[in-house]
Design goal:
Layout: H1 12-29, H2 35-47
Length: 64
Amino acid sequence: MERSQLNLRMSEQLGKLIDAKRIELSQTMGVIPSRSDILRFALSQYLNVDLSQTEQDRRRTGEA
């Protein structure tokens, strides 16, 4: 599957909020999710679709 990349500019405040959510989720996930993961989670909820299979970060290996 061909993948495209999105360049997103954000304020310092938004970056801090995203990083805080990463740390919060790491408590239940066992790993710190990437900023891209957080944006995928948010888009999945906003769009009301399951993106977990089609939008996984392909750079990672060894994950189910």
